[in-house]
Amino acid sequence: AQTVTQSQPEMSVQEAETVTLSCTYDTSESNYYLFWYKQPPSRQMILVIRQEAYKQQNATENRFSVNFQKAAKSFSLKISDSQLGDTAMYFCAFIPIGPSNFGNEKLTFGTGTRLTIIP
Amino acid sequence: SQTIHQWPATLVQPVGSPLSLECTVEGTSNPNLYWYRQAAGRGLQLLFYSVGIGQISSEVPQNLSASRPQDRQFILSSKKLLLSDSGFYLCAWSVAPEHGQPQHFGDGTRLSIL
């Protein structure tokens, strides 16, 4: 079974600063995808970024980037130049893929990190 | 473009009453469909998922059930609600998850049991 751990229940940072959210996971699978989702106070879950385990290059999406360390099973999210609109719950999620999981690909979520951007 | 609709947005029900939450997807065919529950301040718990019409997999034993009567329609039901069924329910869809395609979520239903 896979587990996803987010060890920071809450974080806060001043507007325009950089913040890093931590995520570790445990799996015996060799191929998988990792995601970061954002859930603002409106409660809608929004995809922020995704990373394939086979790709060594860290994914980036504008101000959002990840530090993917496969050997350490770590997948942190860095938000640069943070904005007030970044205030949200952030969830790390994992999905195994490959022949043994075909038709049974399910996301496992961490418990989330509540991020507050301070004006 | 693909869209997902989930309703109602808010629901207050007495203990022991029935439940029906509906989710529909537009703009795609044969999606995988998912129901999640999110307790206050917690992560998402997968309740049911479906890879096709009439095909439902249950992840957590409970008094809830799911049905998929049409390709892009997913319904979460209960015959008798419990206090513990309170929470935020999210529907999601994806295509080609085996290729890392992400899940896309509806706006959710906040269910309060009195």
Structure in a nutshell:
With 119 residues, chain A is mainly β. Chain A is built from no helices and 12 strands.
Q: How many helices of chain A?
A: 0
CATH superfamily of chain A: Immunoglobulins
DSSP E strands of chain B, number: 11
- What's the average pLDDT of chain B? 92
Shape of chain B: globular
CATH topology of chain B: Immunoglobulin-like
What CATH calls the topology of chain A is Immunoglobulin-like
* β-strand number of chain A: 12
Instruction: Quickly name the level 1 CATH class of chain B.
Output: Mainly Beta
- Mind summarizing the main beta sheet of chain A? 6 strands, mixed
**Topology as H/E string of chain B?**
EEEEEEEEEEE
| Percent of residues in helices of chain A | under 10%
Radius of gyration of chain B: 14 Å
Could you characterize the architecture of this molecule?
- The complex is a heterodimer of chains A (119) and B (114).
- Chain A is mostly beta strands and 119 residues long.
- Chain A has a single domain, classed as Immunoglobulins (Immunoglobulin-like).
- Chain A is built from no helices and twelve strands.
- In chain A, the strands form three sheets. In chain A, strands 2, 5, 6, 10, 11 and 12 form a six-stranded mixed β-sheet that branches. In chain A, strands 3-9-8-7 form a four-stranded antiparallel β-sheet, with no helix packed on it.
- In chain A, β8 and β9 form a beta hairpin.
- Chain B is an all-beta fold.
- Chain B has one domain: Immunoglobulins (Immunoglobulin-like).
- Helix content of chain B is 0%, strand content 57%.
- Chain B is built from no helices and eleven strands.
- In chain B, the strands form two sheets. In chain B, strands 2, 4, 5, 6, 9, 10 and 11 form a seven-stranded mixed β-sheet that branches. Chain B has a four-stranded antiparallel β-sheet with strand order 1-3-8-7, with no helix packed on it.
- In chain B, β7 and β8 form a beta hairpin.
- Chains A and B meet through β6 of A and β5, β9 and β10 of B.
